[in-house]
């Protein structure tokens, strides 16, 4: 009697370990199936996306600039952000988050612009850079 273990059972689908099952055996193609389809020269990555909407990118950029330095740009960011959101909804392009962020930043920049105008009109803020607290 030998102390060796019995050989392992054959793999599912026939054949032996390390070799593919014979064609037509069990209806399974060799090695688990064909490779995923190729789109645009990139195998296995699915269908190409439509890309980001350019209005969404500009809405975000102008919203940031409007918030940081030039509040009137917030108005343009609001218009572009809303336009980009409607285009993205109909075309399926990417950039919905950028459009929404640009729209929101544009609103915040517009609020700061209104506060600045009120401050200048009431004399609380003047062009000298000093804040007048007394009337």
From TrEMBL:
User: Any transmembrane segments, and where?
Assistant: 56-80, 101-125
Every copy of the DUF4190 domain together lies at 56-115
What are the Pro residues biased-composition ranges?
1-24
Q: Where is this region: Disordered?
A: 1-49
Q: Which UniProt keywords apply?
A: Membrane, Transmembrane, Transmembrane helix
What protein am I looking at? DUF4190 domain-containing protein
Say which species the protein is native to: Nocardioides taihuensis
Q: What is the lineage of its organism?
A: Bacteria, Bacillati, Actinomycetota, Actinomycetes, Propionibacteriales
């Amino acid at each position: 009697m030998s102390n060796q273990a019995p050989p392992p059972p054959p793999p599912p689908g026939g054949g032996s370990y390390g070799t593919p099952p014979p064609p037509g055996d069990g209806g399974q193609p060799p090695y688990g199936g064909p490779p995923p389809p190729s789109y645009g020269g990139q195998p296995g990555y699915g269908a190409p996306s439509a890309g980001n909407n350019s209005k969404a990118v500009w809405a975000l950029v102008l919203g940031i600039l409007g918030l940081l330095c030039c509040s009137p740009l917030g108005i343009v960011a609001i218009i572009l952000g809303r336009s980009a959101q409607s285009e993205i909804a109909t075309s399926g392009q990417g950039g919905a988050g950028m459009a929404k962020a640009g729209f929101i930043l544009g609103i915040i920049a517009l609020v700061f612009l209104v506060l600045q105008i009120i401050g200048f009109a009431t004399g609380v803020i003047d062009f000298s850079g000093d804040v007048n607290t007394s009337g």
